[in-house]
Each structure stands twice: as C-alpha cells, then as structure tokens.
Amino acid sequence: MSFIIARFTQRVHVNPISSLATVSKRSIGGSRARCRTSVFLKSHHAANRSLRLHQSISWTQSHHYCRQLCSSAAAHVQDCKVIATGVETCGTDRMVEVQWSDGSMSKYPFVWLRDNCRCTACYHHEAQGRIALIEDLDPDVEAEDAIVSEDGNQVTVLWKDGHKSPFNTDLLKDVTFKDEGQVKNVRMWGSELEIPTFDFQEILKDDATLLRYLEALRDVGLVRAQNAPTEVGQVSKLANHISFIKLTSYGPTHTVKSKVDPVSLAYTGLKLGLHTDLPHYHYTPNVTMFHCIVQSGGTTGGESIFTDGFKTALQLKEEDPAAFEILCNTTCDFIEKGVDMVDYYTKASWPIFSFDRHGNLFKVHYSNALRDTRLRMPVEKVYPYYKAIKTYDNLIHRPENTVNYRMQAGDMILFDNTRILHGRRAFKVTKEAVRHLETAYIDWDNMHSKIRVLREKLGMPFHHY
Predict the structure, then answer these.
(1) Dist. CA 336–CA 371, nearest whole Å
(2) Residue 211 Cα distances to 125, 147, 402, angstroms
(3) Taking the CA atoms of the chain, what radius of gyration do you get in angstroms?
(4) Inter-residue contact 330 to 351 (CB < 8 Å)
(5) 20 to 30 A Cα–Cα from 214, which one of 106, 110, 203, 354?
(6) Cα dihedral sign for 410, 421, 248, 453?
(7) Non-local CB neighbours of 307 within 8 Å, separated by 6+ positions
(8) How far is CA 447 from CA 128, 164, 242, 409, in A?
C-alpha cells in the first residue's frame, strides 16, 4: 500500500501469497496532500503482456487510516507546501527546469508549456478549458526566459513572440511525464470477506458516508446498504443521488420476481451459476444494483453468491497457465435476443479476461447462459477451449472463493459488474413464497466523477483515479 501525504511516502509491498510485507520510505515533493492505498502484483503472459492485480489491506483499516491521514494533511497542508526556488530555460533541450524547495527538479517541454498556457487569452478559467487552438500551436515554439515570483507560487514563461504564460506551481508540481497505469486501491478477497455495510438513509443524507460507500465499492467491488424501504423505486433514488441510471434493453430498472409459470430463467427458483451481467453489450454496464423487496419464504434458499473475478484470474494464472492463456487470447461471442422495453438482439465479442494498454487486467466477461453456439476458432482448438472454461468455472465456484449472502428485505447490494461474478442458490417457488428484486445499472465514469466531486466538496485530498 502507499500512503502519500505531501512530502512523505510509506510504501508497503505485499506478497499476496505469503501475506508478508516490507516497508520502504522515500522523500517526495508535492504541494497537494494526497492519500492513496495500493500495491501490485505483476506476472507475465503471452506477447510479454503483464497481468497486474492490485491488492490492499482490509477496507476498514485502510479507510480508517486514510481518514486520519487526510485530516492531518488538511490541517498542515500549508506547512508542507512545496514552492519553486529557481527556474532555468534550456534552449538545447527546449525545456524549462524548475527547482523546488524540497530539493527536487522538474522539466517541462516548451511546447507543453505553450499548449497549457494559463493566461486568459489561452485558457478559460471559469469553464476550465483550453481556448487556444491546436492549429495555432507551433511545435517548435521557443521560450526567451522564465521567472519565479517572490513567494515561489508562480512561474511565468516569456516567449520569443512576446507572449507570457503564467503557471501556478501547484499545477506544475502535479504534472509528471510518465506513461504508466493508474494506481488502483483494489482489495482482492475470498470467502473471508465481510461485505462493507452502510445505512441506506445515511448514504442519501450524508456526503461523507456516501463517499466512504462509493470508495468501498470501488476498492472491494461489493457493498451492502441496509434499511432501504421495501418498495419499488429505491434503486432509482440511490442511482439518481449518485448520478443517473444506465439505460439497457430492460429499461431504466428491471423487476426480477419469481413466478410459478416463468418466461425467463431469472424468474425461476433454479440455481444460477456465477456470471457477469450483459456481456453481450460492447459497453457493458459497470455497476449492478440489487434491491431486495421480498425474499423467498423460509430461512434458506435464494442466497446470492459472489466471487472476485480478479483474484480468481490470478489463481488460474498460477494453477493452470495454459488455460489462462486461452481465456486471455480467445474471443467469445455473447448474445441475447428477446423483448422487454424494446425488441432487442444484442451481441458482443470478448475474451474472458480483458487488459488495458499497460497490461492491467481490468474487465472480466463471463456468462455460461449467454455464450453463443458459434465459436471463433479452428476446430482443433475447441477441446482446449472447453477445458479452459471448465477449469475456470470450477475455480470460481470453490467455497474458499465465494461469499454467500441471503439478502433480507430492505437490503441493497451494489457490485462491480466488470470484476465481480454473481449467482444464486436454488429456492422453492410457490404462489405464497415469492422473491422480488429490483435491479438497475450505473457506469463507473459517473461513479468516479461523484467520488472526485465529493472529495473536492469535503476538502479532502485525492489522487486522479
């Protein structure tokens, strides 16, 4: 994990297999206080790509410590502020070098400085957007000089064409020219997980509670809210409080209600295997919402099952590298056809494991029910493919990898649909004993936006996640 506050960083490197940790410290410069929890494990697969899975300490510990650190940082941020102590224009390298009060030095290319000029002719400060057009930018622009203000809080670049570009040092110090993936605070888990739990009404009325709820969802991938009213409309209320619902073929919300004469597997009392929702969408809904309005009769049956798709991907890589490679590199078609809000016939192609350009695993798509019968592979690869799927399916259903929870009326579960697989245990359906859920979806773009807005509103430091 990395806790970063102004000039001091403590980084704990965690081995997820042995759970042993070592601590290292380093000095950093930063005018904005930050708090971040992260560690990563990197392993390689075909074509030199890497699987980077991030893990952190327990959600309760990390959030408690982060709140303490953030409070301390807010109280002492002025004392820790790093200012510019010197500046030099280097014509040979076409860079401006800024020296900082913590002893560090940063370089900024001429073209980047001109492109990001903060004068009112080039930048609209109210709209927070660039006015200057790229068609007017000279990539070979030359700086004449650069000066630092007396208080060290501003650097001004003087250009050979007479233009002046002022920069707040907070902006300059926050910029790094590195091509690297974002550090994510992902906590991987198995059956030991205690689902982070919040009060539904507190989430709606208290910004600090809402922030902790959303960050727990981001980091753990699975959260619960209790004491929601047992009536339709609560998923919309929460979704609209965060941002807005993602519309799908099922409409803004979807009722899942058991019936003695069902027309969908969701309406039966049958066991549903672990899966992700709507993999037949090219832009798969990111967060799934389940609100339990009525639970099936009795004290057992109908339990929800959850598995961490990132952790199980790592396990598959360790236990069966060949199966892992197949599921990384083989595209599977997912398809669904039906009638709901509209007539629909949706289809998308994904490998089971998807990676970003940095080699980070960032999405899992898996649904046995919605796999198309057509396969995009030579016939001789069919048997290895089925064996790989079977191996992974066995792994995600292992008891040590699953969390079982029987939702109670008034519970609302949210989970990361790009990471967490979910299923359901069988239950008996009668006319008297029904199970009634209302579901909806939200996208991570809006979730992350709300987290940043709340942190800014509450005066809390944040990393650009």
Answers:
(1) 9
(2) 27, 41, 26
(3) 26
(4) yes
(5) 354
(6) positive
(7) 274, 396, 397, 401, 402, 403, 420, 421, 422
(8) 21, 38, 7, 25
Q: Which two tokens stand for residue 218?
A: 């981001």
Q: In Å, how far are 316, 317, 361 from 312, measured between CA atoms? A: 6, 9, 12
3-state secondary structure of 384: helix
β-pair type (84-90, 412-416): unpaired
Among 10-19, 270-279, 413-422, 446-455, whose mean pLDDT is lowest? 10-19
- Residue 404 pairs in a beta bridge with 305
Across 12-24, average pLDDT: 30
CA 351-357-358 angle, to 5 degrees, is 115
Q: Can you tell me the distance from the alpha carbon of 4 to that of 19, in angstroms, rounded to the nearest whole number?
A: 22
Alpha-carbon gap, residue 412 to 239, rounded angstroms: 12
**Would you state the pLDDT for residue 209?**
97
pLDDT reported for residue 181: 61
pLDDT digits (tens, 9 = 90+) for 139-191: 999 999 999 999 999 999 999 999 999 999 999 998 888 876 666 789 999 99
To which residue do tokens 């790989």 refer? Answer: 388
Q: Which residues pair with 402 in a beta bridge?
A: 307
Residues in the chain: 465
Q: Please give the structure tokens belonging to residue 374.
A: 């057509």
Give the E-state strand segments of 382-448 in sequence order.
402-405, 412-416, 420-424, 436-442
- 296/151 Cα distance (integer angstroms): 67
User: Is the separation of the CB atoms in 127 and 111 below 8 Å?
Assistant: no
Phi, psi of 317 (to 5 degrees): -60, -40
Q: Residues 109, 89: contact at Cβ < 8 Å?
A: no
- At residue 382, does pLDDT exceed 70? yes
Copy the structure tokens of residue 96: 């401006």
